[in-house]
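Note on ligand handling. Small-molecule inputs were canonicalized before submission; formal charges were left as drawn, and no protonation-state enumeration was performed. Where a ligand contained multiple stereocentres, the stereochemistry in the source SMILES was retained. For flavin-adenine dinucleotide, this procedure yielded the string shown in the input block below.
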Amino acid sequence: METDVLIIGGGVIGSCIARQLCRYHLDITLVEKQSDVCMGTSKANSSMVHDGYNIDGHKLKGRLCLEANTMYEKMCRELNVDYRPATGSIFAGFTEDHLAIMKQQLENSKTNGLSGLYIANHDQMMALEPNISREVQYGLVNPNTGTINPFDLTMALAENAVMNGVKVFLETEVTNIHTRKGKIESVETNIGRFKPKVIINAAGLYSDKIAGMVEKVDGYIHPRKGSYFLYDKKWGDHVKHCIYSPPTPVSKGMIMVPTTEGNILAGSNAVEVNDREDFATVGAEMDEIYSHTIHRLFPKMPRMGEVITAFAGLRAASNTEDFIIGHAKTVPAMINLIGIQSPGLSSAPAIARMAEELVRETGEDLDFSERPDYNPNRPAPVILRNMDPETRSALIQKNPDYGSIVCRCETISKGEILDAIRRPIPARNLDAIKRRTRAGMGRCQGGFCGPRVVGILEEELGITPLNITKRGGRSNILLDKTKDLSLLEGGANSEKIQL
Amino acid sequence: MKKYNYDIVVIGGGPAGLAAALEAKKNGVEKILICERSARLGGILEQCIHNGFGLTYFKEELTGPEYATRFIKAVEKTDIAIKRGTMVIDVTQDKVITAENGEDGLFEVQAKAIILAMGCRERTRESITIPGDRPAGVMTAGTAQRYVNINGYLPGKEIVILGSGDIGLIMARRMTLEGCNVKGVLELMPYSTGLMRNKVQCLDDFGIPLYLSHTITKIHGKERLSAVSIAEVDDHKQPVPGTEITVPCDTLLLSVGLIPENELSQKAGVAFDPVTKGPLADEKRCTSVPGIFACGNVLHVHDLVDNVSEEAQNAGRSAACYIKNQLTRRTQSIAVKAGNNIGYVVPQQIDFEPGKDKVVKLYMRVKHPAQKVAMTIANDQGNILASFKREVVAPGSMETLALPVKMIAGNPEFLKISVTN
Ligand SMILES: Cc1cc2nc3c(=O)[nH]c(=O)nc-3n(C[C@H](O)[C@H](O)[C@H](O)COP(=O)(O)OP(=O)(O)OC[C@H]3O[C@@H](n4cnc5c(N)ncnc54)[C@H](O)[C@@H]3O)c2cc1C
Ligand SMILES: Cc1cc2nc3c(=O)[nH]c(=O)nc-3n(C[C@H](O)[C@H](O)[C@H](O)COP(=O)(O)OP(=O)(O)OC[C@H]3O[C@@H](n4cnc5c(N)ncnc54)[C@H](O)[C@@H]3O)c2cc1C
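Structure output:
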C-alpha cells in the first residue's frame, strides 16, 4: 500500500504527529501493533503536564517541554479533553537539605522563564494540604503543573486524525524496513507491505529497534519501570495538589497525583529492567512506594483496602537520557523519535511540530498545502455523569440506552459503551472500552460490568464471547462453553496442587 | 425531570429489598416503590443455582432462584410498584432519591422512609494487592459464577481458587461439574472462612485440596494467565521463604471477601461501622439518619439468605411503624459492644421501647474459631444476662442470639457480647 507518511506507533507521540500532519494534503497511515491505540507507555504514567520548572532547559526535552506548555490549552480545547492546567504541584520537604533542593529548583524555574513558584513554610503547607504529614516543613509550590487523562488525550488525538483522513491500522506490527541507497523501498508488517515516502518512528520502547532496521544506530533504549497504586475516589479529596516526595539515600522522589477523574495515583519508583514487556508489579517495590511516599506524606492512606488497582509503566529511557529526535543518518526520509521518556506526554505537541519540520526537510515530494476541510475539533463523547440532570434526562428520552447503567461503580450506561464501539477508532475488547468510557475502571474493577460488556460486544459486533478479549491477542476472557468439557470422554486432567 | 412521591422507597430488589417491601405492605403502608438496577428482581440469587437456600425460613431446601421466586411472586401479587433496570444514583438526608432508567430518564422520588438493600460486592485482586502481571483469567468467583450460570461460558479449565469464602467453594464444585480441573483452594487464614457444610460438600466430596495458611505471591502471564506462585504464610501472614512453588493454571478465581455496597448510604450521610463496613443500625434496622433503614448484605455480610429475609422483615415493619409514628425512643440508647473474640455485633445499639417485641435478635461473628464455648451477654455492671452454649464457632458462620427484652428492662448503658470457654 502506498502512502505519503507512515507513522509507526499509536502512543501519544505517534497520534499527536498524525494529528499535526493531517491538516495538509498528505496521505497518512498510522500502524500500531497492539489491538488499540494508547496501549504502551502513554497509558501508564503520572498523567502530569509539566511546565518544565525543574528541567534542564538546554536539553532537547527541556526545550520541547517548555514550548509545549504554551500549546496545551488550545489543543485540549479543540479536542474536548479534560485538561487541568492549574492543579499545581508541591515538592514537599522535611529537612534543610530538601529546602536546599527547593531553592535550586526555584532558581532553575527562573532560568527557564517561568514564574509563580514560591517556597511555602510549615503553616502554609498545612493550609494548602490539610491532610499531609505534620512533619512536612517546607514546600516548593508550582501553581502551573497541570494534569490530564493521558488515554483520553491520546485517543482524542488519534480520533481527530482519523476524522481528518488518517488511516489507522491496529494489530499491525512493523517487522522490517527495506531501503536502497538511502531511499525507503517498503515497510514490512504482519498484514502486508507499505510503501511510504516518509517513515516516522514513534514506536516508544521499540523505537531503537525500528531505527535499527535501516542502519546501525548509536541510540538505544534501556527500559526503566515505574509502578503505581491507584486509590478509590473516596480519597480524591485527600490530596489537593500533585505532591512530590523528597528523595532518600535509597530512593528517588516520587509523586502523588489527584487525577482528573478524582482518584489518587501514587508512584512511581524507577527500576532498570531487561524485558521490554515486563509490566509486572513486584511486592517489595510496592511496599517501598507505600512506605517511602504514600505513608510518609499522607499517613492516613492505608496500604490495602482502598487501592483499586496497581500497575507499572516502562520509561523508554535512552542512553543519553534525552529525547533523540532526527533523521536516520543514512535514510533522510526516516525520522526517529527515540527515548521519549518523561516529560514526553507534556512535550507531545512541540514534538509533533518538530516532527513536521523534519518531514518538510526530507525534501520528499509532499503537498503541504492545507486541506480546506481540516477540522481541528473532536466532538466530546457523551459522558452522562458530567451532564446536568435536564440534559441527561432529555438524552435518555431520545435514546433509552443512555438510561441503562452497565458499570455501577463509575455509572456508565449501555449507550456510552455502544458509542465507544462505534467511535472513529472502534473499541473491540474490554480494556479498549474501559479506556474510552471508564467502564471497569472503578472499585470493583469490572467484576460487575465485565460479563455485561462482553454481552454488548457480542451483540454489537456479532461475534462469539469466546473471541472477546481483555486487550487483544490471546487475552481471551472465556475459554469454552459450559457443558462442552463435561461431555468430553475422559474429561480434563485432574492433577491437584501437591505440597 | 419527573418527580414522584412514595411512602417507602426500597433500594435494591434482592431478597432483602423484596422481604422488606412485602413486610411494609403487610403493615399497611400504601405507596411502596422498589428500585432495582437489574432487569430482573432477585439480586445475587439469580446466579446461585445451587441448593441450600431456605432451610430455616421455608424449612425446605431450595435453589437461589427458587427462593427468590417465592418472594418475587408474593410482591407481584401486591400493588407494590417496581422499577426494574433502574439505578439509584443519589439519596439525601431529606429522603429524596435520584434514579435513572431508560423509560423515565433521570427522576426524583420524595419518600417518607427509605430502605437501603443494595447488597454487597466482592473484593478484588487489588483490594488484597497480589503483585505480578495483569493477564486475562483472573476474576472474582462471583463474576465467574455469572459467566457460567447466566451466560453459559467457562472462564477457564485449569483453575486455582484463592480464598475459602462460600462463593469460591461453590464455584470449585461448579467448575468441577463442568469438567474443569480445580487444582486447589488456598486460604490465607489458618481456618476456612466459608460455611463448614460448603467445605464438605464442595471440596471434600470432590477431592479438591484446601491449603490453609497459604497465599498467592505472584501472578504470571502476559496475555492470559499461565501460572501463579503460591507460598505458605507465617503467623504474620508473611510468605515463608523457601515454600514458594509455581502452579500452572489458566484461571484464578478470587473469593477473598465481600464488602457492603455503601456508596449511596454514604451520600445519605449515615454513620458507619468500620468493622462491618456497613451503616450503624439499631434493633429496628434504623441507621443514624431517622427514617433511613438498612438490611441484608448492605448492612453486614450474611452467609444465609434466610437471615437476610428475617432482618429485612424487621426493617420493613420498622419503616411502616416509623411512617405511622409508632416507634417510641428509649430515654437512653443501649450500646451493644463486641467483647472477647467477637468481631462485630448487629445491631450496634438498641434505641426503641420494645413494644410488642419479646426478644432482640443479635447477629454476630467471632474473630477466631473456637470449640465448646459459651456466648454471653453481659450488662454494664458485668452481670451475665444470658449465656448460650455452642459446640463450635467460626468466623465463617454468623451466630444469632435472642435476648429476651425483659433482661434489659433495667436500661443498662451497654451490653457486651463475649465468647468464653
Ligand atoms: C512511570 C512513568 C511516568 C511518566 N510520567 C509522565 C508525566 O507525568 N508527564 C509526562 O509528560 N510524561 C510522563 N512519562 C512519559 C510519557 O508517558 C511518555 O513520554 C509518552 O507516553 C511516550 O509516548 P510514545 O507515544 O512515545 O510511546 P508509547 O505510548 O509507548 O507508544 C509507542 C507505540 O508504538 C507501538 N509499537 C512498538 N513497536 C511497534 C512496531 N514494531 N510496529 C507497530 N507499532 C509498534 C507500541 O505498541 C506503542 O503503542 C512517564 C512515563 C513513565 C513510564
Ligand atoms: C455468590 C453468592 C452465593 C451465595 N450462596 C448462598 C447459599 O448457598 N445459601 C444461602 O443461604 N445464602 C447464600 N448467599 C447469601 C445470600 O444470597 C445473600 O446474603 C443475599 O442474596 C443478600 O441479599 P441482599 O438483598 O442483601 O443482596 P443482593 O442479593 O445482592 O441484592 C441487592 C440488590 O440491590 C440492587 N442494587 C444495588 N445497588 C443498587 C442501586 N444503586 N440502585 C438500584 N438497585 C441496586 C442489586 O442489583 C441487587 O439486585 C450467597 C451469596 C452470594 C453473593
